[in-house]
């Protein structure tokens, strides 16, 4: 430590150069890849114009990693990949090999460490998620525990490419949606269902009332004098529990153990393949928070995956499939209840109504 | 050795009845990870304890974050304090550092170990690889450790990422490093942008956050269109390259080309007559589906570049937004210059008209795309809209145009 | 004979240099029509004169209408006054009567002549066959002629249509009278509705206008989904009836069934293997396309009825609306009763919550469909939405539901 | 006349019974039609389950009809149709015949009267339209003259079924859109482009100021005192010339000979066939009012029809065709200019932006 502090102070150096950690085979064939093949779930082979072949072994990760595990990854990278590895945009780990003969030994070592290999093509990949109770004040639920519970149930679809198309799941622990769940095939979203419990004592000290009032998307907050001090009040019928007031003012916490919970959304996507990117749509407005294993959530997600797997056609993402069969049938097949909450009543609500006589029976 | 982080080697493991259940099952367990760190680190151990309480009580025990950071930087650290700090003193302060990942998350084992070593000395020993913006997240340390961690990181070649009303760490797909479809060099562009905007990244001065993401093709493997204020998505201008022989092989191997490839083409521009695949490239919307389905037979064209899109964000405040097209095509080699010039004009406009906590997408929604285009000096083109307006409420500017 | 409308047989024809140009060309000319009426009628002649002035000056010469009508009715007449009445005294007052058309606009020559005779005696001799709501429009008369015209009309079996904040004349497609696709009796329903709501039609008491339209199938030949507050669109529940032999004949005659029929099916539920047409009826959205394309081979199913949709209107004030599904299916023989019951509840809600000049569609937009459904006591079903909500801003009603 | 007035006064009798004017063949086969054929443009044959055949000859009409012409129709109905006829939802006249031998003679008589036969199937049908200068105070243009000018140019497409699909044109003379142009393949819409000229003198006498203020969709109207009297003022930048203020208050006329004009919209539809019903979209924000023949409008509409006819596939309605080829190409092919006005900036504007990387080059 002491060595570090005496060195000159560096700032604004930016990240390491983009080529710095690339393995030699990548540097040699950079931008010269011709096509790829899948050798097994989680195992890809990219073939370069030069004829060289790069093998990728993709392994699942809990994302929340100890330095002990990271060092283990580093060891594997040294042993199999000339010391280089990468993470994916969905937090998996990828080992990049030149020698196909080393794939199986690597997979064995991973298996021994309890690390599944998969997540490619028409598999379920890792769940993009957020901090939850591990590190965030806003959380209506935990993220890591949900992910673990759901992935345990879906692990076979990670290690087998047995779905009609890619299936992307995301978890966000509050409406800020750091997990960007809004465009996922299946999204699990933590929700509050009680208006903020205003802490009138501290509010004037820690928050600017005008900013606070302006923060509410529905105009539910108005100035009020409480016990002679300037504070605010919330018109409860106008509050839809978004938590934006809490983001700007700590004196507006929304957490409520009994009423917080989870909502489930489906049919969003990001890629431009076939259909345009689209938002996920509500299918279950609320499920209770039941740590440590969230059985209701696991059951609902498993149900959706099973029905989708049984019914969708090859290449149909969740949303594309539902587009074809229609939402009424989706609710029928899953047995989920359709309620008034499913009907949009926010800004562009009218555009979500069924504005045609296209009906399936 | 008791280091600066106060790891005293205490032996009391907290009872974690609920969390223990999360060590079962086939998926790697974050609880196991925390326990593993907790073997050597007290704050990881207290985290475990506090988390167990959260699991029991079904609520977070973190207080609303406070501003902490390193000298001269306005962001990169998320301040976090426990509301049960008396019970778990080692997480009473438990800030995280956001560290710029290397482009497309490539590491050498050496670099990874270096980070581990630093974090062993200064933090909880816990990380997120990676945060959902893309940063390497070093999870949990105390205020006094921030500066030393920072200094060690920079000397190891790493810098902090963004937080607050600043540019956030740009991210990109693996692109040319391992993907045959990359239509521009995503890693280089991402790196160049990050280097260009060091100041905007480290010293928050915007109305709100600003995120860049670069995907090499319309598959958009970093979800740029959904999750970045400024998305760069590779595409091509000329014809899809076809190897008819390989197409035939896919057919022979059982792919139902007419139904599953042509039938799913959003441009309705493909035809397979059993022997040759015909693509009416003029109507192709560059969706990637046919190429995805037959990677050996089809490839993007040769005239490569990218679409620039603007404005995605999560729902708070006015509802989630997807990015929309701002420039339909920029040749690959002009991307950096075009973006630098464009982004400056966008920020100037945002600076002038954006209100507090208003993302660029929401500003555009509020003032309208035409006014935004006027403001940044860009001509309207039909590629910017899914369709022209359908309501007749037009603000004619008759003065400007004369009267015809 | 100089009749009550003051037709004096004056011989001065106004100079109509501009309008004369509109007598050229193959399409029948409205100018010729006005001239033809003007031969025998002064107000038609003055209309020609005033219209020529409008053509010269490029502006309307009608003043903002005033309230005129017949005894006991609050609507059915559009008051109209000229602002160049000094120049054209015979159109100084020039009101129109809206007259309920017979269902689907069927007339006997006798009935038509009777109307002509009445209008010759009391009005300009000009009509619109028909107005765009559907009424027969008798174009132009004076206030004193309204009551006599009305009385003659009723004795001839015709009544006034709607105007103002009232039910407007319902209209319907030709339906069972001449169309093989009618899934319910549009003409009867339209007639029954009109009879049921005589009072609401003639005595405006709503926040704004309310239009009914009935189409026998999803082709919607009266544009009900775009132009009526309450649209009834015929459809069927069971399988499309297929005559495979006739399908074969269409193929033989050169129709490319796979591409042009199956390829255009929005339900993606058709397949033609060269010999038989297969329809996965479960996924069929009842769009009519395949039936339209092969009317001899395909027909709607046998379990017939209609979809009820609500809320269409033109743009003023909050933007145009298309109707949206309220009840996905009502059997044909239950339509009238269901509608009567439903419409009453809708009007009660509108009455209570609608503001002045707020159409039912705009009210639903304002309060939200869920609140509207609560208000009229209808359960939400997924058929009502194109998709469930995509924003997480849910007003949970935890009290109501208990807390699990 | 005098006979009528002495009779008892009838009210609320409603329209004639729906069956009253149906010809016998229709009554016999009511609800029993099996299928139909097209014998020629404008000539349909409906075949009943009974085997009976009903022939329809559809004739164009200017809609604004004198009683002289109506009587001529009645005569034709007597001569050819047993005295019965109907009008269509697009204001054409239909003659219903039992005897196919009489079709040609009827067509000849119609031709002699200058009445075209057609409008069926993939033809252009009559233009739905409104009052215009003939009878409305709001009109920014005339409707009948526009229709005549456009139909003269398109008459061949009425008498020939030579288009890829049905093509529906509508005209409305102001934003009230009585012609319901909002869902037409091609819509011609009269527009004002100047804010209301407030008549402060009469305003307080004829209008209620609060109602007037509330009528403005953009909140452009506010109370003001003008020469000591209560009136209103219009914030010009906020006015988009919708005319709603004029609808509720005669003291707010918008007409302005030089700035009024026409806008052109395309790609809307009503039917549920194939695609869902949809709104028409702006393609030309403004063309000048050039009576009596509106050459600019005729040229623009003809251009659209020609390009559509040349490029669209069988069964593709205007909007479906543009959906496939994309708006950029539509603007290229027609040569129309794309401007800032084409980009929506009203309530749901954001949803009309191109929210995908789907781009054609
Ligand atoms: C490694 C990674 C990029 C990176 O820089 O990290 C990546 C890599 C590849 N993607 Fe991806 N995608 C990666 C995230 C994504 C994402 C982003 C996300 O999931 O958050 C998307 C958008 C998802 C969405 O639409 O919601 C994505 C949408 C695709 C698609 C389009 C799939 C579709 O039909 O919609 C393809 C094409 C395909 O699979 O046929 C594709 C194809 C590929 C290919 C085959 C490209 C290539 O030729 O190498 C790569 C490996 C295939 C695979 O995983 O099946 N990649 N890909 C990311 C792996 C994440 C993971 O660990 O699972
Ligand atoms: C760490 C991270 C979640 C994670 O576990 O990965 C995260 C964590 C937080 N986010 Fe986030 N956001 C993270 C990625 C995102 C993303 C996803 C993305 O960038 O792709 C989004 C959605 C995309 C977007 O930007 O709209 C996101 C949308 C938000 C929002 C809503 C912003 C909005 O405009 O709607 C907030 C609220 C705010 O800014 O006040 C927020 C706020 C927060 C705060 C700072 C909560 C707060 O007010 O203090 C969280 C700190 C948690 C903590 O204790 O560390 N976070 N946040 C992600 C950053 C890691 C990284 O740097 O790599
Ligand atoms: C005569 C007719 C046009 C025609 O030439 O066919 C007509 C004429 C007028 N309409 Fe209309 N509307 C006529 C069908 C329509 C339609 C089409 C329809 O019903 O299918 C619409 C659009 C659909 C709808 O209802 O939204 C229509 C939407 C309007 C509006 C806008 C209403 C709205 O909610 O957006 C107004 C403005 C108003 O009500 O103040 C309006 C107002 C008017 C007024 C009364 C103007 C006024 O404020 O005084 C016009 C009187 C003209 C005159 O001097 O006779 N008219 N009006 C149509 C009625 C004939 C009939 O009864 O058959
Ligand atoms: C007579 C009329 C109904 C009435 O009660 O008056 C009618 C009659 C028929 N329509 Fe229609 N439609 C009539 C207005 C409409 C309208 C309303 C409108 O134009 O304002 C529509 C919706 C138009 C739209 O989508 O914008 C309409 C959309 C259809 C369609 C769907 C066309 C499509 O592909 O979108 C069909 C099916 C077809 O033509 O293949 C159809 C088919 C038919 C058939 C073939 C039905 C049948 O089996 O008899 C009738 C004659 C065919 C023809 O004209 O080509 N009819 N039809 C209307 C004639 C209007 C006219 O004079 O031109
Ligand atoms: S989604 Fe909400 S609770 Fe979760 S990390 Fe983001 S801000 Fe915190
Ligand atoms: S939670 Fe959201 S809706 Fe409720 S008061 Fe706070 S900001 Fe307003
Ligand atoms: S976005 Fe395209 S270029 Fe980048 S990794 Fe994905 S498929 Fe390859
Ligand atoms: S890239 Fe997409 S739009 Fe283009 S031809 Fe292939 S499938 Fe069709
Ligand atoms: S709407 Fe259907 S039933 Fe009515 S005329 Fe048109 S095609 Fe026939
Ligand atoms: S009616 Fe429409 S959706 Fe149904 S099978 Fe025919 S084409 Fe397909
Ligand atoms: S569209 Fe406007 S101008 Fe034309 S008739 Fe209707 S209200 Fe009058
Ligand atoms: S014309 Fe429309 S926008 Fe302008 S002041 Fe009148 S109501 Fe408002």
Structural summary, described in words:
The complex is a heterotetramer, with 2 copies of chain A (361 residues) and 2 copies of chain B (404 residues). In chain A, the strands form 3 sheets. Chain A has a 5-stranded antiparallel beta sheet with strand order 1-2-3-6-5. Chain A has a 4-stranded mixed beta sheet with strand order 7-8-11-12, covered by helices on one side. Chain A is 28% helix and 19% strand. With 361 residues, chain A is of the alpha+beta class. The longest helix of chain A is centred in the last third of the chain and has 17 residues. Chain B is an alpha+beta fold and 404 residues long. Chain B has a 5-stranded mixed beta sheet with strand order 8-9-10-15-16. A 4-stranded antiparallel beta sheet of chain B has the order 2-4-7-6. In chain B, strands 1-3 form a two-stranded antiparallel sheet. In chain B, strand 9, helix 8 and strand 10 form a beta-alpha-beta unit. The radius of gyration of chain B is 25 Å and the shape is globular. The N terminus and C terminus of chain B are likely disordered. Chains A and B meet through strand 1, strand 4, helix 3, strand 5 and helix 5 of A and helix 1, helix 2, helix 3, strand 1 and strand 5 of B. Strand 5 of chain A pairs antiparallel with strand 5 of chain B.
Short description:
Chain A is of the alpha+beta class and 361 residues long. Chain A is built from 11 helices and 12 strands.
- Report the average pLDDT across residues of chain A: 96
Measured between the Cα atoms of the first and last residue of chain B, the distance is 83 Å
Biggest sheet: strand arrangement of chain B: 8-9-10-15-16
Q: What is the count of β-strands of chain B? A: 16
Record keyword descriptors for this entry:
heterotetramer; A: 361 residues; alpha+beta; 5-stranded antiparallel sheet; 4-stranded mixed sheet; 11 helices; disordered N terminus; B: 404 residues; 5-stranded mixed sheet; 4-stranded antiparallel sheet; 15 helices; 16 strands; 33% helix; 15% strand; globular; disordered C terminus; binds siroheme; binds iron/sulfur cluster
């Amino acid at each position: 430590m002491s060595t570090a502090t005496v060195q000159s102070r560096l700032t604004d150096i930016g990240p390491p150069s983009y080529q710095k950690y690339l393995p030699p085979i990548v540097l040699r064939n950079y931008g010269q890849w011709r096509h790829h093949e899948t050798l097994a779930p989680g195992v890809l082979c990219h073939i370069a114009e030069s004829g060289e072949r790069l093998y990728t072994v993709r392994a699942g990760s809990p994302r929340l990693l100890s330095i002990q595990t990271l060092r283990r990854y580093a060891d594997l990278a040294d042993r199999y990949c000339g010391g280089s590895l990468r993470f994916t945009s969905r937090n998996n780990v990828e080992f990049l090999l030149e020698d196909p003969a080393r794939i199986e030994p690597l997979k064995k070592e991973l298996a021994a460490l309890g690390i599944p290999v998969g997540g490619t093509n028409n598999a379920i990949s890792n769940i993009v998620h957020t901090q939850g109770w591990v590190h965030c004040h806003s959380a209506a639920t935990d993220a890591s525990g949900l992910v673990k519970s759901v992935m345990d149930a879906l692990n076979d679809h990670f290690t087998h490419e047995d779905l009609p198309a890619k299936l992307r799941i995301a978890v966000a622990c509050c409406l800020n949606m750091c997990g960007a769940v809004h465009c996922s095939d299946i999204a699990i979203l933590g929700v509050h269902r009680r208006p903020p419990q205003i802490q009138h004592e501290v509010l004037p000290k820690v928050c600017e009332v005008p900013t606070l009032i302006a923060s509410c998307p529905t105009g539910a907050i108005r100035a009020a004098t409480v016990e002679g001090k300037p504070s605010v009040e919330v018109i409860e019928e106008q509050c839809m529990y978004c938590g934006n007031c809490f983001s700007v003012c700590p004196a507006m916490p929304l957490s409520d153990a009994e009423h917080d919970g989870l909502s489930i959304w489906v049919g969003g996507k990001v890629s431009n393949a076939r259909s345009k990117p689209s938002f996920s749509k509500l299918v279950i407005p609320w499920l209770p928070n039941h740590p440590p294993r969230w059985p209701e959530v696991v059951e609902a997600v498993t149900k959706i995956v099973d029905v989708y797997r049984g019914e969708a056609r090859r290449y149909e993402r969740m949303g594309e499939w539902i587009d074809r069969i229609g939402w009424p049938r989706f609710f029928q097949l899953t047995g989920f209840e359709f309620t008034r909450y499913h009907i949009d009543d926010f800004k562009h609500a009218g555009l979500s109504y069924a504005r045609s006589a296209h009906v399936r029976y | 050795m008791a280091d600066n982080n106060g790891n005293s080697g205490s032996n009391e493991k907290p009872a974690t009845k609920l969390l223990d259940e999360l060590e079962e099952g086939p998926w790697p367990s974050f609880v196991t990870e925390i326990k593993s760190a907790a073997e050597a680190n007290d704050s990881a151990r207290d985290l475990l304890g506090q988390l167990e309480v959260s699991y029991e009580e079904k609520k977070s025990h973190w207080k609303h974050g406070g501003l902490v950071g390193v000298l001269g930087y306005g962001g990169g650290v998320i301040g976090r304090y426990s509301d049960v700090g008396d019970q778990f003193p080692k997480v009473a302060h438990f800030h995280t550092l956001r560290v710029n990942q290397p482009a497309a998350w490539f590491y050498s084992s050496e670099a990874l170990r270096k980070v581990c070593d630093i974090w062993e000395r200064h933090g909880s020993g816990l990380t997120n690889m990676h945060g959902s913006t893309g940063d390497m997240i070093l999870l949990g340390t105390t205020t006094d450790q921030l500066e030393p961690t920072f200094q060690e990181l920079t000397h190891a070649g790493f810098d902090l990422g963004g937080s607050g009303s600043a540019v956030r760490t740009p991210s990109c797909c693996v692109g040319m490093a391992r993907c045959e479809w990359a239509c521009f060099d995503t890693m280089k562009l991402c790196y160049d942008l990050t280097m260009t905007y060091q100041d905007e990244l480290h010293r928050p001065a915007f109305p709100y956050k600003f995120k860049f993401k670069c995907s090499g093709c319309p598959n958009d493997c970093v979800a740029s269109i959904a999750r970045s204020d400024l998305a760069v998505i590779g595409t091509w201008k000329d014809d899809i390259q076809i190897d008819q022989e390989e197409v035939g092989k896919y057919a022979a191997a059982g792919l139902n080309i007419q139904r599953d490839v042509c039938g799913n083409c959003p441009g309705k521009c493909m035809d397979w007559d059993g022997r040759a695949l015909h693509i009416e490239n003029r109507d192709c919307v560059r969706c990637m589906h046919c190429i995805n389905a037959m990677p050996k037979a089809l490839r993007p064209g040769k005239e490569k570049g990218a679409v620039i899109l603007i404005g995605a964000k999560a729902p708070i405040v006015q509802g989630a937004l997807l990015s929309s097209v701002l420039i339909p095509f920029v040749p690959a080699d002009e991307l950096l210059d075009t973006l630098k010039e464009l982004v400056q004009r966008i920020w100037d406009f945002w600076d002038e008209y954006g209100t507090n906590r208003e993302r660029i997408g929401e500003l555009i929604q509020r003032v309208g795309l035409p006014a935004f285009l006027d403001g940044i000096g860009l001509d309207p083109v039909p590629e910017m809209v899914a369709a022209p307006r359908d309501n007749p409420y037009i603000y004619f500017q008759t003065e400007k145009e004369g009267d015809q």
